[in-house]
Design brief:
Oligomer: single chain
Helix content: 55-70%
Order of helices and strands: HHHH
Shape: elongated
Largest sheet: none
Radius of gyration: 19 Å
């Protein structure tokens, strides 16, 4: 499930309220890391429908991947290559 990506300014304000003893540098560093993690989480999340696929799902769909019994990335890539050769 995708989450809303907050701006680092908003995250920094929340951190400043919760942890007033942190320096501005520490707060900004943490805020940027949290925002980066939110972006990664959205990119790697598995969606419940193909209408709004995550980044990796969109790449797989663009490459022509269809659900199968493949369990590894290597198997999936082999299946895609084999399908293209036929």
């Amino acid at each position: 499930m995708k989450i809303q990506i907050e701006t680092y300014n908003r995250i920094a304000k929340q951190l400043k309220e919760e942890y007033p003893k942190l320096s501005d540098f520490e707060i900004l560093s943490l805020a940027i890391q949290i925002q980066r993690n939110q972006i990664l989480e959205n990119g790697l999340a598995v969606s419940s429908s193909d209408k709004y696929p995550s980044a990796l799902e969109a790449i797989a769909i663009a490459l022509g991947y269809e659900g199968s019994n493949s369990v590894t990335i290597t198997d999936v890539l082999r299946n895609i290559v084999n399908r293209e050769e036929v």
